[in-house]
Amino acid sequence: GMPENKFDDIFGSSFNNDPFNFSSQNGMTRDDKDRLIEQLYKEIAILRDELGNFKAESHRLVVHLKGRIQELEAELAEQKHLREQAVDENDFLRTELEDLKRVKQDTEQAQKNLTEIERKSIANEQRYTKLKEKYAELVQSHADLLRKNAEVTKQMTLAREALGDVERSKKGLEDSYQRVNEHTQRKAQEQIQQMDGLQGALESSKQEIQLLKSSMQTSKQVYWFNYHHCLQNDL
């Protein structure tokens, strides 16, 4: 921002004590005024560019985070669907396993009498073993799905927190820019008013000097007139 002593740097610290000192040290020129105004506008433009860049970067980050949240929500929905399927299949297999246990018991009772029943019993035993293994795999898969669901939920929470941080940072920078911009414009207006006042004082002083010159010229003419008149009287 504009330093508080910028006015003294340009017009000199003795300006308030000697407002009619028009030396090169304390004088004011239009170039000084123009340079000061140009510098203030440049600083405002720089702040505006910085805010624009931050807004663009914040927008890209917000879009990315929102996209990531949508991906995680879709993945969470898919995991929920798979978990529900696993639960349904688990219930079906449990029922079928219980049925096979009853069949196995019936088969064992009839095995000694029927060769065909013995063969079916062996087949059922093998199927029972396979279903038992598949049931164990489904239990493990269900546990993995629960862990993955927890991780996805955690990532969604972190993504939402990051999005909130970006929104708060964006709001903070916009508020800061507004304060700096208002302060800079206020200082620029004050400097312009002070320089306009100094310009008025300069014009008034020039008029006084012109009046003094005119008075001196008149006095000089009167003096020469009286001098020549006296010479003529002496002659």
Give structural notes:
Helix content is 88%, strand content 0%. The chain is mainly α and 235 residues long. It has one domain (6-234). The longest helix has 120 residues, at 115-234. Pfam families: HIP1_clath_bdg (PF16515).
Q: Which runs of at least 5 residues are low in confidence (pLDDT < 50)? A: 10-26
Termini, distance in Å? 78 Å
Number of helices: 3
The backbone outline, from C-alpha atoms, is rod-shaped
Radius of gyration: 48 Å
The helical percent reads: over 70%
Average pLDDT over all residues: 86
The chain-level structural class is mainly alpha
| Sheet with the most strands, sense and barrel status | none
Summed up, the domain count is: 1
Number of strands: 0
Beta content comes to under 5%
- Helices and strands, in N-to-C order? HHH
Summarize the helices and strands and which ones pair or pack:
Layout: H1 6-11, H2 30-110, H3 115-234
Record keyword descriptors for this entry:
235 residues; clathrin light chain binding; mainly alpha; single chain; endocytosis
Short description:
By secondary structure, this protein is mainly alpha-helical. Helix content is 88%, strand content 0%. Helix 2 packs antiparallel against helix 3.
